[in-house]
Amino acid sequence: MYNLGLPVPPGFIVTTFSFKHFIHVTGIDTKIFAILKDLDVDDNDRLQAAEKEIQGLILSTPLPLQIRQVILEAYEHMNIDPSIRGTKAEDLIMQGREPGYVAVRSSATAEDLPEASFAGEMASYLNIKGPKNLLAAVLACWASLYTARAMYYRVKNHFAHEKVFIAVVVQKMVNSDVAGVMFTVNPVTQDPNEILIEASYGLGEAVVSGSITPDEYNVNKKGFVVTKKIIAKKTWMYIRDTEKMTTIKVDVPVARQEEDCLHAQDIKKLAEYAVKLEEHYKKPQDIEFAVEKTRVYITQTRAITTLGKKKESNREEQLVAKKEEKQVIVNAPCEIEIKDAVLLVSGIPSSPGIGKGKVVIVHDVSDLKKVQKGDVLVARMTTPDHVPAMERANAIVTDAGGSTCFSGETLVLTDQGFLTMKDLYLSDQPFFVPSLNRKTLKVEWRPIIAKMKRRASAIVIESSQTGKMKGNTLTLTPDHKMLTYSGRELVSKSIQEVLDAKEMLVIAQKIPSLPENLPFDTKIAYLLGALLTDGSVSLTQRRGKITFVQKEIPEKEEFISTVVSYLSEFSGKQVLVYPKKASSGIIRGRPIQGSSQCNAYTVCSKVAARSILHLQSSLEYLFLRCSDEVLYSFLAGVIDGDGSYNASASRINIYCGKQKLYAPLLLACYR
User: What does pTM read for this prediction?
Assistant: First the structure.
């Protein structure tokens, strides 16, 4: 597209050679292809096991230094004009420059198989920022070559695994005001002379995923005249949250909700680009675009593989070969008359889009063979055994099971620390979460493979060891499955069943570290623990101050001496001592008055204060990747400040009243 002179966001490609080099030099290629040899993709257990094993190999294998350097160098210079590379102008531009947001998309290719189409089979990640997140997204894209779905598709379409490789396209993320998709052949009417454009406000994922009703424009290829348009009421849109580096959902201003989101000149420009792409690729195209301010960008194009064959068409007009046919779900056109139809049943959608086909009722696994391509699979509920049939189905209707879920405010541990379910849903970054390996009974880090939201009745569970703790709640659907034991066997039961039977839940005893081993000073870890319990940090535009407060009693002499020494060493400043009046407060509703005066050990340094605050905010990320010695040092600082350790009982007690201490404390203990 770049060579065609089309407006493509700047970027670079991590080539298939890089992927082949990665699996070859690390030696995992022989392991991968050994797993794939004679894999029966109709055996869902084996298929899922192969996915986990291969993706685990890729995600846990460090990138070779050469590949890391090339990717990060390309990322660093992505928006720099090649004509100024190596000049002082480039140095000036690079100074103080923050890493940019990028979209990271997979692009699978098959050697010697130009007719192969893998659109939609691999992963894509949006709003990726920073070197660490970029490298993680590249690995996640590579791993997506071996999802159960992708392996199933290749085998069923007779593509050898050894001939299919993957490139990764990294492009500047357009912060679009309007975005959408267009088809160079109307996929509804299959009119080859008509372009269909769908667009809405904000980032394009809402239109691409089908989660909103976009504006529709039908454009004639001759003269680029709009022959029909339907303006939807656009009540919300996705935008970029620059603080959290995620995508968030916001309301569209009322005055703009029923306006055209595309201007006439943009529609004409898009139609011109669509025709140019179709002529170049010699096939109908499915194109994604974005409009930022007054500039139109083409972000992606691929051949449409969903057009049916009309009986009156000759061989040249048959737009796709049978091998390339692949079902997608599109929005139902308004022209279809359904006024005479009878609504038989309705329910809650589990995913966006509309499908149609012949109904096939599946009573048990033996009925799965009845499901043909394009059918509507109807079952009481789906299980992993249904996957091959689900791949053939146009739509799925179930009576039970469905999508169980937690409330949006539920905190979940990820490889980036604790995030809410809402943040996870809105983010396009790849995330990993702790997952139980049912065979080894060990916790492992696994990628999140899908996420969705729904409206559902929920229950609120309050948990407390003594009954005195309030507000420690979990909100979730009553049918959500949790782990418990029955007859000494690990089983999954709905939380409602567990509550009714007054059973216990199985929880993790230990969380493993992530593959990266971040070096960190144990002295600083101890200092952070002490300051989080018995200290404070203040920072303004003009001043910074670190304060450690402690009673000067014999039992605390060594503790005070150690903290003062570490604080002085860390800041490079002298620690000043100020007397502080006895403290007072309220514990469990009762007023408490301190019995003696304390000292405030203080360092005045804006740089040191900023550094401590930065480290405190990064503890969750660090504690998932550091050594055990760092964690022990942190816990020692916490215990020396506000805790106790009973060696004979192997028990620590920590008196924690600071919200920001909860997460790092939990992670340190679980690690």
Answer: 0.47
